[in-house]
Amino acid sequence: MVDFRLSEEQMMIRDMAREFCDEEVIPNAEEWDKGGTYPLDAISKAHELGLLNVTIPEKYGGAGMSTVDEMIICEELSRGDPGFGTASYHTMLASFPILTGGTEEQKSEYLGRVASGKLAAYCVTEPDAGSDVQSLKTEAVRDGDDYVINGSKAWISGAGYADWFFVLAYTDKEAGYGGLSGFIVDADSPGIELGKKEENMGQRCSDTRGVNFTDVRVPESNLVGGVENGGWMNAMKAFDHSRPAVAAAAVGNARGAMEEAWTYAKQRKAFGKPISKHQSISFILADMATKIEAARLLTLSAANALDSGEKATLKSAHAKRFAADMCMEVTTDAVQVLGGYGYSEEYPVARRMRGAKIYQIFEGTSQIQRMIISRELEGSF
Ligand SMILES: Cc1cc2nc3c(=O)[nH]c(=O)nc-3n(C[C@H](O)[C@H](O)[C@H](O)COP(=O)(O)OP(=O)(O)OC[C@H]3O[C@@H](n4cnc5c(N)ncnc54)[C@H](O)[C@@H]3O)c2cc1C
């Protein structure tokens, strides 16, 4: 049996997240975006309400909620504001490799820190290596009981506010993907230098910057899982979890844009009636709603697979690809519904459209998702 209804508890969490965004996020989102201000206070408040990093198990101090619960919250936070949604998620992205492959000590220490409100960042991308992870240059070389890390990471969300980093680096350069290892690096380690905040097109309140590692010493106890050369699978497994969250964020941002478009279309009159009564506009609005619903179902299906312990690579890629492209279409259509006002920063749909683009780029571009989907399906036919 497939049950599409939310439980009482899930509806309560959803309503709490929605109310939080109505009060704390939506009234501030324009100012955060204009100033490029990281919403640290709102993130702390969301943490206190129990809305962040909710899948961290109870034994490490977390709420131990399901991935489906997490998706419900992610949708609401990005319906509040897309940049806020991303700023409230980078910590979980960094936590997944520890959750799926870390030792008990690593989980207890670093997931424990996250559960207590500390932030973390996921450092994989480099200036010359994004989609092509095998081209990474960062290396970790064994020296006594430590590893010494050298390299530069780029485009790291939340780097300026992180307490620790998950870092993917080569421990065996000759072995390709099989020579990559994951490390947990405390952000105050000597030799770490943060780059300046990037001036991004959208989601401008989210912090994105480079991180340089020069002779950064990390104890061997911070090699994720205590195993050399197991980093690739672990980092990729993290994406199976985080891609549905990006999809949920895209659904939330699209929903926010659709809500704005409906409100405007019902009050804006042209040729003697509200524009929502013109068929071409009402069909745009109807298509927005269908696309959002379809993306949400793909997202929840991927989340449900993860909660059932299934391999979710295909479902996560379907959800991320479809929801990211859908969000770009829906937010662009929302601008169209508002006409000239949609093009102005005075209305939030412009911010939502700018904020939509990144879903097609980070955590694997839409092209990379299609490659994963075709690779996963090839053997089935
Ligand atoms: C705002 C922002 C936040 C980010 N946050 C993080 C973070 O927290 N941590 C992190 O590690 N990284 C992060 N990233 C990096 C992000 O994951 C990469 O930008 C993304 O993976 C794409 O890599 P790239 O930019 O190097 O593009 P490239 O890999 O150079 O791709 C350029 C274009 O070529 C296409 N392409 C590449 N290879 C193929 C192929 N084989 N077939 C078809 N098309 C292909 C891509 O789809 C894309 O359209 C962030 C990026 C941004 C902009």
Quick summary:
The protein has 381 residues and is of the alpha+beta class.
Verbal overview:
The structure is a single chain. By secondary structure, the chain is α+β, with helices and mostly antiparallel strands. The chain has 3 domains: 8-115, Orthogonal Bundle (Butyryl-Coa Dehydrogenase, subunit A, domain 1), CATH 1.10.540; 120-232, Beta Barrel (Butyryl-CoA Dehydrogenase, subunit A, domain 2); 236-378, Butyryl-CoA Dehydrogenase, subunit A, domain 3 (Up-down Bundle). 51% of the residues lie in helices and 14% in strands. The chain contains 13 helices and 9 strands. It has helices at residues 8-25, 29-35, 40-48, 67-80, 82-87, 90-101, 104-115, 231-267, 279-307, 313-337, 339-342, 348-356, 366-378, and strands at residues 120-123, 139-143, 146-157, 164-170, 180-186, 192-194, 208-219, 269-270, 273-274. The two termini are 27 Å apart. The longest helix is centred in the middle third of the chain and has 37 residues, at 231-267. Strands 2-3-7-6 form a 4-stranded antiparallel beta sheet, with no helix packed on it. It has a 3-stranded mixed beta sheet with strand order 1-4-5. Helix 1 (8-25) runs parallel beside helix 4 (67-80), helix 8 (231-267) runs parallel beside helix 10 (313-337) and helix 9 runs antiparallel to helix 10. The chain binds flavin-adenine dinucleotide (FAD). Flavin-adenine dinucleotide (FAD) is lined by residues 90, 121-125, 130-132, 155-157, 200, 208, 358, 361-363, 365, 367-368, 371. Residues 90, 121-125, 130-132, 155-157, 200, 208, 358, 361-363, 365, 367-368, 371 line the site of flavin-adenine dinucleotide.
